[in-house]
Amino acid sequence: MRGRKRQARRKISHKKHLEMDDENEKIEGWTKLSDLINDNWEGMIKYISTSGKLQAALENSHNYFDKLKALKDFYLTNQNEILQTYKESKHLWYVSYPADWTSHLTKIEYQAWCTIREIGRIVLYPQFPVANYFLDFGNPGLKIGLELDGKDFHNDEKDRERDKVLKEFGWTIYRISGKEMFRTNYKTLSEMNFDDYDFPDIQKHLSYWLLETGDGVIQAMKEIYFEEQIDWGYIDDEEYYDNEDYFRLRKEYIKLCHESLDLHRYC
Q1: CA separation (Å) from 58 to 14, 66, 100, 103?
Q2: Rounded mean pLDDT of 228-246?
Q3: pLDDT digits over 54-63, tens only?
Q4: Domains and CATH numbers, the chain
């Protein structure tokens, strides 16, 4: 039941993003647009015009290679602005919907995209070009990528070689299988408390979520790359928290996030 509710909530959430975007991004998006108006009139014109050009180019594509060219042209044209936006805030998109991604992502990629948009504060651009490859999702500021490995297109040996090449360009690639991406029957950190669960049970649920589900891996990417990390080992828990179990839980959560990312990369 929880999995079905999570799927339904994800569909509603994604529809809301398409229509008006979430509140956090609306604020950041308008702040970005305001900055462009005040500081860079040419940048504002480019921001508005490029947001529609990609969709038009994709719709007018005659084949798969035309679509790849349109995507590459879009990102190359806007690469400086994308990196500048990252420097202003790693939580800020230059533009998140330059195209209707529902028409241009595979089923697995779309599932991941909905998760990225639902959890928020994580920026991974769809179909991002790096070297001679296209990543399913990528962030050029952090140089991290996310690949969704469907069974029909996944080749362990070739993927490993590809990730080694990308590592030479400074990129770290994380991989999620289709099976993992469609697992939705889990409990997140916010869905558990010490009134209803003891620490071993919470630890077990956290481990499954972060290590064995696609949503958990994306959450781990957010935690490690997009949130400010605290070295919990050097904090006096009595000074910060009255509940010692909460302190232990935070340490376990961060540890599992690191384990999740280690588990989902080749190199």
Answers
A1: 21, 8, 10, 9
A2: 56
A3: 888 999 998 9
A4: 90-266 (3.40.960.10)
